[in-house]
Amino acid sequence: MDIATLSTYATLFATAGYTVVLLVQFFRHSELKVQLRWFLGFLAISALWNLILFLYLTDGVLPNLFFLMMLAGNLVLGITTSYYVDWSNRRRWLAAGSIAILALVLLNMFQPQTSWPGLENLVIQPSWGGLLGIGLWLFIALTLIGRTWLSYRATRLPGHANRLLHWAFSLLVTFIGEAFIMVDDPLLLLTGQAVRFAGVVGLSRALSSHRLFDIQARFRRLVVYAIIVAATFLPAGLLLWGLFRLARGLNISSFPTTALFLAIVTAGFLLYQPYLRLVHYLVNRLFKGRKLETAQIVRRYSQAISRTLDVEQLAHVIIEIINGQLDIRRGALMLVSYTNHMYTIEPIPALGSLSHQKMTYSTGLSLLRLLAREHKPLLQYDVDFSPDFAAFSTDEREWLAEQGMEIYVPIVSGEMTAGLIALGPKHSGRAYQPDELELVQMLADQTVVALQNARLYSELNEQNEQISKLNKDLLRQNERLEILDQVKADFITIASHELRTPLTQVKGYADILQDMNEEQDLTREQIREIMSAINRATVRLEKLISAMLDASQLEISGMALSFIPSKMDTVVQMAADPLLLAMQERNLKFEIDDLAKLPPLHSDFKRLVQAFSNLIGNAVKYTPDFGTISITALPVPSKDDAADYVEVIIADTGIGIDPEYHELIFEKFFRIGDPELHSTGSTKFKGGGPGLGLHIAKGVIEAHGGRIWVESYGYDETLLPGSQFHIILPVVPPAAQQSLPAAEDILTPTETNGQTDWSARVVSLDV
Ligand code: ADP
Asked: How many CB atoms within 10 Å of residue 305?
C-alpha cells in the first residue's frame, strides 16, 4: 500500500477513532456536564468531517461540505472552550457562528466552484464559501488559543493555571493537525491526522479528568534531561573525535603514541565522573531550586512555635517559617472550634490580606472530617474540580475558594481537625511539589500541641477579661444597691417628715381651735381660716397617701388601666392647669407645641394626666424663677409611614440632673439631695418631695407600652443646663388592642361635658 492510499484510509481510521472517543466519554460519565455535551458534539462533527474527506479523496464528491463541517466543528469547540474556561459571552459566539455558517452555505449555493491561483496545494480547492471557512478557521483558532492563554496568565493558582495551559496546548495541537490535514500532501495528511487526534485526546482528557499532569514541570524535566544528555555526550564525543584525528595522523603502533592514547583515555575516564556530578549539580541548582532540608526545618519550626503562646503570634511564626522555605504570596492559620453539630472556622491572616470573618458550617458531611481522616493537605484545585468533592456543601466550597489559597494543611488532633494552615500560591507560580506537601503536613503535625496551648492561653485571657468585666459590673451594681439601700433608709426620714408636716399642722390648728373655743373668742372669720388651713394640710396628706398607694400598687400588680382615645393636647392641658398659677407667680415661661397635630392615643386618660402632672410639676420645682418650661411633641413614623408612636419632650431650663442619677431618679423614694430637707411646697423652687413622682410616671408610661428617659448634661445651679424628659407612647398600646372604642368616644373638652367635668374626673396627683 502506498502512502497516498494509506493517508486516504487514515481518514476512515480517524472517523473510527473519534467515534470511539465519543462512545467512551458518553458511557464513562453518568451525568454529562454542559461542556462535555458540547464536546461530544465536536467529536461527532470530527468523525463526520473525516468521513466527508474520505468520500472526497475516493470519489471527489462534496468538496464544499468539508469546509462547512470544519467551521461547524470549530464553533462547537469554541463553545466547549467558553464553558471550560468560564467565559461569559457564549451567546455572542453562538450568534456569530450561526451567521458565519449561513454565510458560508449561501456563498456555496451561489458560487459553488472557483479556483484560486496559489491555493492549488490545498487538499480540496476551496470555493468562496471554502475560503471564508478557512479564514474563519484561522480566526477561531487564534482567538481560542489566545484567549485561553490570557486566562492562563491571569490565573494565580498553579493547579487552575495548569488546567488552562493543558487546554491551550491541546487546542494548539488540534489546530496544527487541522492545518496539516488541509495541505495536499499524503505524508502531511497522515501526520496531521495523528497530531489532530492527539490534540483531541488531550482536550478530551482535560474535560473528563481533573488529574492533569503539570505541563510546566514536565517541560522543565525535559529541558533538564536534554541538557544532561548534551553535556554528557559533548566531552565524550569531542574526546573520541580528537583521538580519531590523532590516530589518523600518527602511527598507532609506535609505543609513545599508544602510551599517549592510553594516558588520554585514562584521564578522560578519571575526570568524567566528577564532571558528570558537576553537571548534575549545576542543572539541579538552576532548574529545581534548593533541596528541602526537612529535618532541619522541622526542628527549627518546633523550637520556634513552642515558645509562642498567643494565637495571632503563632499564626505569624508558622507562616513566616513556611514562607522562608516556599516563598508564598499569602498564608493564614485557621482555627476550628466545634459546638453541637456545627463547626466554626476562624481565619487568622498572617501574610497577605484576608478577611477575619468567622464561618459556621454543619459537621454533617464536612470537609474537615475528611481532612482529619485523610490526614494530608487539601488542594483548592481538587475542591474545585475533583468529582470526589462535588457532594460537599457548596457553601463550604465557595468559602474555601474565596480565600484564594492553594492548599489547606490539616492540624489533626485525634479524630478532629483542630485547625488548618492555609497557604496561598507561591511567588514562582509553581505548584506545590510532593516533598513540599509532605513537609507542610509534617509541620502541621508539629503544630497540634502549640496550637492547643495557645488556644487555652487565649481562652484563659478571655475569661480573665470577662471576669474583670463582671467585677466592674458587680461593683457598679453594688454602688447602685448601696444607693437604693440608702434610699430605703431615707424613706423613713422622708415619710416621717412628709407625713408629720401636715399632721403637725392639723394638730396645731386643732389645738388652737380648741383653746380659742374654750376662751370663746373665736370669730367666724378665724374659724374659716383655721378650717381651710386644716383642709389644705389634709389634702396634702391625702395626696401623699394616695401616691404611696399608687407606688405600692405598681409593685404588687402593675397598673390596671382602662383605655379610651384621648388627645394629647387635652392631657397636657389638664396636667398643667393646676400649675399655671404657680408658674405665673414664679415668672416661669410655659411653651406648648401644637399638640393637636398628634393622633389621639388610646390611653388611660386619668393616669396619663397624673404622669404628665408629675413631670411638669418637677419642671416647675427644679427650674428657678424666670426659667422656661416647654413641651414639644412629634409623631414617630414607623416603617410603613403610619404614626404608630408619639414622642413628647418636657424640657426645662432648670438645675439639671447628674448623669449618674439618670436611671435612679425613677426608683421609688429616690430623690437627689439631703433627705432631711422635706418638701417645702409642691411648686416652690427645689421644693422637694417624697421621691415618688417619677416612679409613678414611669409606671404609667410603661403600663401603656411606652418608654421614659431623661437627658441632661448634669447638675449645676448656676449654669442651669436643664433637663429633658422624653416620653414615647404607642398610639394603640398592646394592652388596648383588643378593646378599641369607637372614634366618637374620643375625649376632648369641647366634644364632651366641658372643662368643669374634666376636673371632676381628673385629679392632679403630684405630691
Ligand atoms: P420628688 O418628689 O422628689 O420630686 P421625683 O420622683 O419626682 O421625686 O423626682 C426624683 C428626683 O429627681 C428629685 O428629687 C429631683 O432631684 C430629680 N428631678 C426630677 N425632675 C427633675 C427636673 N426636671 N430637674 C431636675 N431634677 C429633677
From this structure: 21
Residue identified by cell 390611653 is: 603
Sheet arrangement for strand 342-351: 359-362, 342-351, 331-339, 416-423, 407-413, 378-379
The reported pLDDT for the residue numbered 290 is: 64
244 phi/psi in degrees, rounded to 5: -60, -45
Q: How far is the CA of 123 from the centre of ligand 1 (A)?
A: 107
d(C-alpha 546, C-alpha 543), whole Å: 5
d(CA 67, CA 686): 105
CA distance 749 to 754: 5
What are the angstrom distances between the C-alpha of 537 and each of 513, 549, 685?
A: 15, 18, 20
**C-alpha angle 342-347-351 in degrees, rounded to nearest 5:** 165
Task: Give nearest CA residue, ligand 1 atom 19.
Answer: 618
* Minimal-distance CA residue to ligand 1 atom 20: 618
Q: Does residue 654 have its Cβ closer than 6 Å to ligand 1?
A: yes
Q: What is the pLDDT of residues 685-734, one digit of tens each?
A: 877 777 889 999 999 999 998 999 999 999 999 999 999 999 999 998 87
Model confidence at 507: pLDDT above 60: yes
Largest distance between two CA atoms of the chain: 178
Residue-wise pLDDT tens digits, 355-404: 788 888 887 767 888 888 888 999 999 888 888 888 888 888 888 888 88
The mean predicted confidence, pLDDT, of the chain is 85
Mutational pocket test of ligand 1: of 494, 618, 717, the residue with most ligand atoms within 8 Å of the beta carbon? 618
Best residue for ligand 1 mutational test, from 494, 621, 677 (most atoms within 8 Å of Cβ) = 621
Instruction: Indicate the residue type of 500.
Output: R
The upper half-sphere exposure of residue 81, i.e. CA atoms within 13 Å in the direction of its Cβ, equals 30
| Backbone CA torsion sign across 312, 318, 320, 322 | negative
SS3 290: coil
Distance, CA of 512 to CA of 507 (rounded, Å): 9
Å from CA of 671 to ligand 1 middle = 6
Could you report the per-residue pLDDT of 245-257, keeping only the tens digit for each? Answer: 877 776 666 777 7
CA Rg value for the chain:
48
Q: Is 720 in the pocket of ligand 1 (CB under 6 A)?
A: no
**Per-residue confidence band for 458, with pLDDT thresholds at 50, 70 and 90:** confident
Pocket flag, ligand 1, residue 665 (CB < 6 Å): yes
pLDDT band at 749 (very low <50, low <70, confident <90, very high): very low
What is the distance, to the nearest Å, from the Cα of residue 537 to the centroid of all Cα atoms in its chain? 68
- Ligand 1 site, residue 688, Cβ cutoff 6 A: yes
Residue 630, beta-bridge partner list = 591, 651
User: Which three cell numbers, joined as nine digits, stand for 413?
Assistant: 488532633
CA of 683 to the centre of ligand 1 (A): 12
- Can you tell me the distance from the alpha carbon of 695 to that of 671, in angstroms, rounded to the nearest whole number? 11
pTM above 0.70, yes or no: no
- Look at residue 556 in the predicted model and tell me its pLDDT: 65
